[in-house]
From TrEMBL:
InterPro entries found in the cross-reference section: TPR-like_helical_dom_sf (IPR011990)
Protein name: XRE family transcriptional regulator
Length: 390
């Protein structure tokens, strides 16, 4: 803790008493110590001490506008654009972005594209300058969402075209955050293609546009993931520390389901990915592998509610693949295959990211356990999934 504190901490005896009190539950660290503890463990404060929050998008829509979705659509068709309609559109875009982790990709694409058409049609109406900018910005956010879902579904040409549309809409509206997220999408696309220098270039371009945004946090994470695959440990640590420091300064998001929110638990997900890569070729007991395992267990724990329902199914899938890789490095092929198969079973998938990490596990299993019956079956399943996405 002393190495990560920006001030002088009490003496050893006093600190030991504090730590023992925290560990026993007798007391809880105060706001001065929480950031230091988080930094010591390579995470952010709210990942350890989250802020409770809940939202009801449907109720918010009615409360904020006095209208439900049907009335908003009816008024759009009637050429009526007033502040209540604009607010209703904002809430609707927010709701669609919040459906990303749960709604089937095909359904979200249909809804997202339909609302994108409705919103862009408004640009031909007589609007004030402020309304015009607001609608361009909303269209940019929705285009970014649709592009992400298109890429999840392996429709790469459509995803890239939609990403460029989001970037253009962000430029027209002057919304730097939309522009930065469009660059983040470019970084993500490049990562899954193995274009790691492209990831770094996209991350730097996006960070230059909105250096203090949530998009910048994720751009630092994408850069760290690229450096991990290149094999540069020092640059991984620099990028992770830059992103963690920026995220620590931000308020806790009030909507954790929103696709373009970066919640503190997501940062542990990024760190998991990096340390899994850095642990490749290291002994199973190496610090990198232990860190990757700890982060993966935490991702699954936070991403699953008390009833066993997965709040973050795509993150959980990659966490299981990480645990599978750790098991394979420990010599436990049956456990490795079990984690690998469970990762492929989820209904909501981001196929490019899932396949990228699955290939890492598949390569390790093939190299070490190719003749094992369970390994043969898993590798065949993986080949079938890859063939179906071409």
């Amino acid at each position: 803790m002393r190495a990560h504190a920006d001030r002088q901490l009490p003496g050893k005896a006093s600190m030991l008493r504090r730590v023992h009190a925290w560990e026993s539950g007798e007391s809880c660290p105060d706001d001065d110590y929480r950031p230091v503890i988080a930094k010591t463990f390579g995470t952010v404060t709210a990942a350890i001490w989250p802020v409770a929050g809940s939202r009801d998008s449907d109720a918010e829509l009615v409360t904020g506008t006095g209208m439900d979705t049907l009335e908003i659509v009816t008024r759009l068709r009637a050429s009526s654009v007033d502040p209540a309609v604009i607010e209703g559109l904002r809430i609707t875009v927010d709701r669609l972005c919040s459906e990303y982790p749960h709604m089937p990709a095909d359904q979200l694409l249909v809804e997202g594209r339909a609302w994108l058409r409705r919103i862009t049609t408004l640009l031909d109406r007589h609007l004030t300058l402020a309304q015009h900018q607001e609608i361009l910005s909303l269209a940019g956010w929705l285009a970014a969402l649709v592009g992400c879902v298109e890429y999840d579904s392996t429709n790469r040409p459509a995803a890239e075209a939609t990403r460029q549309a989001a970037l253009s809409l962000g430029e027209e509206s002057g919304d730097a955050e939309v522009m930065a997220w469009a660059h983040e999408m470019r970084a993500w696309f490049a990562l899954t293609r193995g274009d790691y220098r492209g990831v770094i270039a996209a991350a730097e371009a996006g960070s230059a546009i909105a250096p203090n945004s949530r998009a910048a946090v994720q751009l630092h994470a994408q850069k760290a993931k690229a450096w991990a695959r290149i094999g540069d440990r020092r640059q991984v640590e620099v990028a992770l520390d830059q992103g963690r420091t920026l995220l620590e300064r931000m308020p806790y998001p009030d909507n954790l389901d929103h696709h373009f929110a970066v919640d503190p638990a997501k940062w542990d997900f990024y760190s998991m990915d990096c340390y899994r890569l850095l642990g490749n070729g290291q002994p199973a007991s190496a610090a990198e592998n232990k860190l990757a395992e700890t982060y993966a267990q935490g991702v699954i724990r936070v991403g699953t509610d008390a009833g066993g329902v997965e709040r973050s199914p795509m993150r959980n899938a990659e966490a299981r693949l990480t645990l599978g890789l750790i098991a394979a490095r420990e010599g436990d092929v049956e456990r490795a295959v079990d984690f690998g198969e469970r990762a492929l079973q989820g209904e909501r998938k981001s196929l490019p990211s899932l396949l990228m990490v699955s290939r890492e596990l598949g390569t390790t299993i093939k190299e070490q356990y190719e003749t094992e019956p369970s390994a043969v079956e898993y590798l065949d399943h993986l080949r079938q999934l890859q063939a179906a996405t071409r």
